Amino acid sequence: ADITEYFNYGFTEETWVQYCDRQRRLRNENNLARLNPTHIPAMFSGLSP
């Protein structure tokens, strides 16, 4: 089988793995940022606990 039939958009096996790893890292960073209380919008900064 011709491996190029399975990889679109110029990806090779190696670049596909790199792309997937980067997507996983970005997803993890985004999830951590959502859980981090320092990212609360400024509109709530004036409220007392």
From TrEMBL:
Transmembrane segments: none annotated. The keyword Transmembrane does not apply. Belongs to the FIP1 family. It comes from Rotaria sordida. GO terms for biological process: mRNA processing. This is Pre-mRNA polyadenylation factor Fip1 domain-containing protein. It is found in: Nucleus. It comes from the Eukaryota. Its main location: nucleus. Pfam families: Fip1. Residues 1-27 form the Pre-mRNA polyadenylation factor Fip1 domain. Keywords: mRNA processing, Nucleus. One of its GO terms (cellular component) is mRNA cleavage and polyadenylation specificity factor complex.
